[in-house]
Specification:
147 residues, globular, five-stranded mixed beta sheet, alpha+beta, single chain, 4 helices, 5 strands, Cytidine Deaminase, domain 2
Length: 147
């Protein structure tokens, strides 16, 4: 079942670049002393604001926070309730996409058609929609709510 959240018009290239740049910039502030795998994420909200977050590891591994979860916390703290676009930046041989848990966290605030941009220091590496990364997802609409 597809989300019934309305889809936003496509983003222009300049906005995509701002979002990717925000994810790249915040990645530099990641706290990853154990894995040494820094990730940055940036979210575009319904008001056109960008909210960024970096991963924060913890010696008790399960207690760490993913970059996407930190960015969502910033979005909510600023009064945002809807994600219009996502950018994730990490360095690996393959494009770094949100983990399964973060895909579900993003789904709470985003529609199936929400663009997910994946980049690294060199730029955009892949483009997905949230629905492609989390098909047939469970979300607020199943409980009669909209994000």
């Amino acid at each position: 079942m597809a989300s019934d959240l309305p889809c936003d018009p496509p983003m222009d290239a300049a906005l995509e670049q701002r979002l990717l740049q925000a994810a790249r910039a915040v990645r530099a502030h990641a706290y990853a002393p154990y894995s040494h795998f820094a990730v940055g994420a940036a979210l575009l909200d319904e008001a056109g604001r960008i909210h960024a977050g970096a991963n924060v590891e913890n010696a008790a591994y399960p207690q760490g926070l993913c970059a996407e979860a930190c960015a969502i916390a910033h979005l909510v703290a600023a009064g945002g309730r809807r994600i219009r676009a996502v950018a994730v930046c990490g360095e690996a041989a393959e494009p770094v996409t949100p983990c399964g848990g973060c895909r579900q966290k993003l789904r709470e605030f985003a529609a199936d058609g929400t663009p997910v941009l994946v980049g690294d220091a060199s730029g955009l590496r892949a483009r997905y929609t949230l629905g492609e990364l989390l098909p047939a997802s469970f979300g607020p609409d199943h409980l009669g709510r909209r994000a």
